[in-house]
Amino acid sequence: MTSPGQTPAAVLQVGPLKPSLQDTLHTSYGASVLPTDPAERAAFLAAHAEDVTVAVTSGRTGVDAALIDALPRLAAIVNFGVGYDTTDVHAAGARGIAVSNTPDVLTDCVADTAVGLMIDTLRGFSASDRFVRAGRWPAGNYPLTRQASDTRVGIIGLGRIGSAIAHRLTAFGCAISYHNRRQVPDSPFTYVGSPQELAAGVDVLVVAAAGGSQTRHLVDAATLAALGPHGYLINVARGSVIDEDALVAALVDGRLAGAGLDVFAHEPEVPEALLGLDNVVLLPHVGSATVQTRAAMEDLTLRNLDSFLTSGELVTPVPVPSGV
Ligand code: 8YV
């Protein structure tokens, strides 16, 4: 069904979304779905490109420069997810296209995931669960693990999520330091000038920085070497922030004590070499994946869409570099 005043393809769904969100987009906004097959996509764009004014997407798919180019009347990109690194904000900015995301509503769940991953990785809960299920307990106790409380934790990216992680870990008696694009004014946590320097002084390095070209491989081989054979790496941000090849090599060679990873460089692919390692916890990008948080993200996505369609303003716009 199409709302009055909307052309059939005014709202375009780009990539898969939460099923209830897809249904609402289709039934209440008359949204079309951009085909994935190249020939079908070309035919769709030939017929409807002129009509599309708003694209709704997620961090998984995003709207790239080629698609922005192909949609001459596109005015807004509404992103389900706080991370929008798959959308080309420079191309959007150059055309004056506004972009929104879903900040705040997922902060608690992603921070919970980081802390849970950290404890699981250091204490080996997932691995010891496998140990019990494999019937290995009667043959002897599970090996001793690493205490999580009272560790020194370095956080890369002290934004909303990084700060929520820091506050949680403060209650665990952890000493928190951080590296960020800019030092955070009045932060109770210790600022360190580079990822490598941060890694050298902590037991656990937690990555909570935004993805994208500016943070690509911020955690490189040298930073992993600084973290060292007794150090642990936790990543709830984007796989691109870490040099994944260097990480896999360090874990396989025993140059890192362990890693807890919710995100990967080429999702849903996970490096084969990690699958057999018990000092690594692997999650399928579930940081925000609770019923409550995903409902809140869906609600905020629709509020952005409604607001843009009625007033031309987004509720939670992201900073888009201006083209002029
Ligand atoms: C979602 C996320 O899984 O918000 C983000 O940036 O990574 C997750 O909450 C993702 O956006 C869904 O595509």
Protein model, in words:
The chain is an alpha/beta fold and 324 residues long. Helices cover 35% and strands 14% of the residues. It is built from eleven helices and twelve strands. The protein has a seven-stranded parallel beta sheet with strand order 8-7-6-9-10-11-12. Strands 2-1-3-4-5 form a five-stranded parallel beta sheet. Strand 1, helix 1 and strand 2 form a beta-alpha-beta unit. The chain starts with 10 loop residues before the first strand and ends in a 13-residue tail after the last helix. 2-keto-D-gluconic acid binds next to loops.
For the structure shown, list the relevant keywords:
14% strand, five-stranded parallel sheet, 2 domains, disordered N terminus, 11 helices
Would you summarize the structure shown here?
This protein has helices spanning 19-29, 38-48, 65-70, 89-94, 107-123, 125-133, 160-170, 195-200, 221-227, 244-252, 291-311; strands at residues 11-13, 32-33, 54-58, 76-80, 98-100, 152-156, 175-179, 190-191, 204-207, 232-235, 258-261, 280-282.
* Tally of separate helices: 11
Number-wise, the strands total 12
Q: Which structural class is indicated by helix and strand composition? A: alpha/beta
- The strands making up the biggest β-sheet line up spatially as 8-7-6-9-10-11-12
Q: Could you tell me the mean pLDDT?
A: 96
CATH architecture of the largest domain: 3-Layer(aba) Sandwich
Strand content: 5-15%
Uncertain runs are 1-9
Total domain modules:
2
Enzyme class: oxidoreductase
EC number: 1.1.1.79
Family: Belongs to the D-isomer specific 2-hydroxyacid dehydrogenase family.
GO molecular function, one term: glyoxylate reductase (NADPH) activity
